[in-house]
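Re: Re: token formats

Sure, here are both.
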Amino acid sequence: MKYVVILGDGMADYPVSALGGKTPLAVAKKPYIDKLAAVSEVGLCTTVPHGMKPGSDVANLSVLGYNPAECYTGRSPLEAASIGINLKDTDVTARANLVALSEEQNFEDKTMLDYSAGEITTEEAKELIDYLGKELNDSVYTLYSGVSYRHCLVIDRGAIAGDLTPPHDITGKKIKEFLPKSASGLKYLDMMKRSFELLKDHPVNAARRKAGKLPANSLWFWGEGTKPVLQSFYERCGIKGGMISAVDLLKGIGKLTGMRVIEVAGATGNYDTDFAGKARACLDALADGLDYVYLHMEAPDECGHHGDLEHKIYSIEQIDSEVVSRIVEGLEARGEEFSILICPDHPTPLSIMTHCSDPVPYLIYRSGRKVKGVKKYDEENAAGTGIVLQSGVELAARFLERDKF
């Protein structure tokens, strides 16, 4: 049996008035997914444990079959693993976004224009982070460059500030009330202020402004954590697993759980990603000895954070036509027995432009074992089945056909 998780990050949503009260999942043209839905188990699952923040870190660990309440130590340590940082037990890490802030004189009066600095390229970002590192790094604080706007700060023998706000939660808002105020957080604030002065006139940003793009003119710290310890996926599940994703978070989870992390040229983490390339990489990995592939696509989530209805629908349609269709047809052509789980990790509703903890619709398809499903895969039809799972760990166990982990 081959297992494939097709994870559309943030794919679920609330009803949208511009769509006549329907969701992007409901209006997107997705004939391949809907064909599976007619003969699959469809229901709702709560992927974020009660009391935990609905981040992609927590939710994806959950769907993979790991209980975040037992193993989660923060988001940035997972990303640090992907970047290749060897953390000490005494290190504290923080995600360091390159963001675009408005340019009022007082830092506190600025507005969060874009948490991704206009989706800055990895090449531009590396130049900026390397420059900041020369100015800001010392024996305690070290910046590491990652992918696009996503970077990492490591603090030797650090302390958790505990009051850091994800920048994607405050797009378009004044930053004053969201700045760190704790004793540990004041160092973050100082570095953020210094980064603005260093970056505002940097040649990379001068070139971006000339090209009509937003400048990456400040660091923003969030997602603190400490070194995690995760059981290997093979030990936990008894099968060989692989991870396909464009983002450091999922790659880090893959590395820390001993999964094969599969790189795909042209994978961007947004709607311009190579969807078909990811599907081909999945099929190749399954043919090359893997039993399970977790295929993560960030695009719907990024569109949700930007309030981009058009491209959220487009991303869902690309997942249908370029990913689901290719994987199903490819495995059928090989005569493989296989199971597919299609779901988001969490909703990222366009109306709030951030994550929420609402249950997500899921679909489990098994080749050769058809069941009575629903006519369309979306939030409403999933709720209508009456099947409600209480955790992502329960969903993972159900998908892999075991009583529990």
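Second one below.
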Amino acid sequence: MNDFFFSIVQPLLDWYASHARVLPWRDEPAPYRVWVSEIMLQQTRVEAVKPYFERFTEELPTLAALAEAPEAQLMKLWEGLGYYSRVRNLQKAAQIVMRDYGGILPDEPEELAKLPGIGAYTAGAVASIAYGKPAPAVDGNVLRVVARLTVSRENVSETGVKRKIEQELKAVYPEGHAGDFTQALMELGALICLPNGAPKCAECPLQTLCAAHAQGIEEELPVKQAKKERKIEPRTVFLLVSDNNGEEKAAIHRRPDKGLLAGLWEFPNTDGALSPQQAETFLKEQGILPLSVKRLPKAKHIFSHIEWHMTGYLVFVVDLPNNPELTWATRRELLETYTVPAAFKRFLDRFLTE
């Protein structure tokens, strides 16, 4: 099998040299920048990451700056990217590197993988792209490419299959071009060997080497474990607004420090899809006396394992209720100070444009 993998190296490198996307973290592949980009790119599209990466590295240009950043700044820079545990682990890892590694990110994948939030894939990506180590970064894109090239019907969801592919690729890493080879494999899966539809085989530099293409079964591969259906959770969200001395404020509430969206700010909400009458009764039970209750358009947010189907109400109140669990924030404060996750974006946008 090694002979086969050797045969894909040069065609991939030649293709990558002329087809690689221009991305901000590729312009200057310093270890810190590569690491931040790889964490951001976990479960997030490249185009969505670009502006976040540029803003994040402008405000926190070094590992030391990240380690020392106040939580409010950190969360605000990440606002809208989702999966906030990523940025919390990013800072924890930066603090460990400052303390235990003299402020220099390790260059060996085994050491990188000891840091919070860094798994085998990210460790391989940083080690190969930033440090030129022969360390594969095997994600879903790479698993799909290899499964099709070799007509493998092994379940790519299994850890053993992934490890085997890592070892096969590691054996053929080209000296002096480790980072390019890692990124070429990623790029091929992202741009050409596409999931959920027909791959662009006519544009593929490995077309003549691909066994799945030769048999016309590209779309049958890879074999992977079926995803569990997401749990549907109906929720009712309240956009509570009060005019306080001529300036409108909206009520927000901080989520618990553990669990989904831990420690972030949200608009008050409750389980279930409440009718207008039920919503008004619920508010009164919380000591909130509404002037008006107006239904808002329904919203939906998809997490990895659940979906929130949200019924929303715009509620004007006369005075700020004496409720210690609520914080009343101006539009400017919501834009600059408090981190409201993307799940509540439609409600945030409504308040900002009211």
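The two ends are 62 Å apart (CA to CA). Strands lie at 231-244, 247-254, 265-266, 269-271, 290-302, 306-317, 327-329.
- S.
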